[in-house]
Design goal:
The structure holds two protein chains of two kinds.
Chain A (H helix, E strand, L loop, with lengths): L1 H11 L2 H19 L5 H13 L3 H18 L1 H7 L8 H12 L3 H34 L4 H19 L3 H14 L3 E2 L6 E2 L13 H19 L17 H22 L5 H16 L11 H13 L5 H7 L5 H12 L6 H37 L6 H20 L3 H18 L5 H24 L3 H7 L2 H25 L1
Antiparallel strand pairs in A: 1-2
Helix pairs in contact in A: 1-16, 2-4, 2-16, 3-4, 3-15, 4-15, 4-16, 5-6, 5-7, 6-7, 6-13, 7-11, 7-13, 7-14, 7-16, 8-9, 8-12, 8-19, 8-21, 9-19, 10-17, 10-18, 11-12, 11-13, 12-13, 19-20
Chain B lengths: L2 H5 L1 H18 L1 H4 L5 E2 L2 E2 L7 H23 L12 H21 L1 H15 L5 H22 L8 H11 L1
Antiparallel strand pairs in B: 1-2
Classes of the chains: A mainly alpha, B mainly alpha.
Chain lengths: 492, 168
Amino acid sequence: MFDLFTEGFAMAMRVDTFLIMAVGLFCGMLVGALPGFTTLMAMAILLPISFFLEPLVGIPFLLGIYKGGIFGGSIPAILVSMPGTGAAVATSRDGYQLTQQGKSRKALDMALFSSVFGDTASDIFTMLMIFPIALLVMQFGPPEVFSVLLMSLIIIAATSGSNIIKTFIMMMLGLWLAQIGTDPLGGVERFTFGLFDLRSGIPLLPMLIGVFAIPEVAKVVMENTKARQLASVMGERLSFAEFRRCFKTICRSTVIGTGIGTIPGLGQVVAAMMGYSAAKNASDTPENFGKGEIEGVAAAEAANNAVNGPTMVPLLTLGIPGDNVTAILLGAFVAQGLRPGPQLFEEQGATVFAILIAMVFANLMFLIIGYLSIPVFSRLVTIKVSVLIPLVIMFAFAGTYVFRSDSIDLLMLVIFGIFGILAKSAKFDVMPMVMGFILGPPLEYAFGQTVALSNGNFVGFFLTERWGAMMVLIMSPLIGYYLWQRLRKSTA
Amino acid sequence: MNSSFIRKPENMFALVCLVFSTLGFVFMGALVAKPKVLFGQSLTAITPSIFPSIILGLLALLCLAHLIIAKRNFVPSNEQGIIGIGRGAVFFSIMTVYGLVLVPLGFIISSSITIAVLSWYTGNRSKLQIALIAILAPIFLYLSATRLLAVYLPELDVIELAISRLLG
């Protein structure tokens, strides 16, 4: 293994690899920073370019877009509360509040440093642990996936707010919205009301922009807020003392993100939410979360970027993409003649290590490019409300439309915007709803497969054959209850 | 239930969810298609209505629990409703119209009109500034999206032709 590593290291030390990664990082950040334009979209569009490049140039290019895009998504999340990617949803909570307090530079710096730290640490972990982790993940079946997804939902609900019933109501609403369209198991229509446009379900992007960004803009319009409340000055840079204060949180989130990244199907969104929730739980001042707590930005960003490296574990060892972005990477690997699976390490072990080493070096460039480009993107906040609001609306509509080129998405955006403002007025948090919506389909799929595997004896199957998954199922409500009690006591 | 209890936004929200989930649960048979059957046997281990039934059932129970607890702890107060509802209605009307005309009028024209209207509505009184952002921003975004990122944004043939001629 060490021979493969040293051979891979030599292979990765190429100028063209580093140059193209830098281009990928910049493109990723640029697209991620455009509200509504996703990393997924950028990767899908630029995927064909990688086909015409060598594997050690083409794949690092896509990895650059991936890394840059995830961080880039935090820029509009912090500046205008419009998450550029789903992974930046948790960041927008405190990031936007910091912007409103005139501390956007601090928030962006923290997002960058924690992203780079989380990314680098998880990449090194990936390199060291790819073989043993692959062995463990290979044991995962539908019951384990079901248990882990259910546990994620319970923990998120328990830590999202003090009123657990309201949180669960929103989560159930999200899970129900995910049922609209075609059933993932049987392929039959559900809750489409005969409308053709609903057959493919509700797309995530109009929902994300609708419930997170539009209510923020609508609030400014409804309250007739004058200029400078939505916009704000850049403020001071992040101090070393502030970074050191958040270091424990960053490390915790990195561990959470790394763990989640190894499990297919969970991805950055879950990692960011869980990292954020864990930080809130561990904090002495959880009441400050959601009101401009810099630790909230650090927790979410470190966790979502820490997912990037470990998602390569199931992808490279089993050929299972952890999310839709890694599905594109899978396409790039196959097009390059590198078929992911256990045999890849035997046939192309050095190339795999070269790619993983390139990922670590990409983080260094990520830090430099990100640090230099922050002021460019941050100019957004100096725009007047009367200029910013129309531009945000235009970006929201353009971003929503280009995703599927379907005009029904624009109406969904408006509907979710109205829903978002109503939920906000009723003091219902929309984040659990979005989580339910994202995790609903894989949860149902894993549930269906588990029932099929159990031959109707669901409980007996778990007790006799899947005790690991059973333990997770038993522990989940207990963990959830403990976290909820802890949160309630600390906010009382 | 007294009217001030129901008028409270969070109780109203829970009540709407309760009604909607109960209706969904009751009419599940009509809202979910029958499962596919091959030689009299279902093709999947669970029917398509099982998971939604669990979700809607839980949703109804949770809403009911919320309303019962809220009723028990209810203290009448002069809490303000949604602030600026009129301005919000105008704002969402503008967005709805934008969503409806974006495809037929094309991205540049519809965005220009929307930007101009919204900018004026949110307090901008500088005609020059309104005109500049209303014209330049949609053109810039359209060119960036279609030429740089190679994604599709709806546009009228005449404008697309003019842009192609200008850019060569």
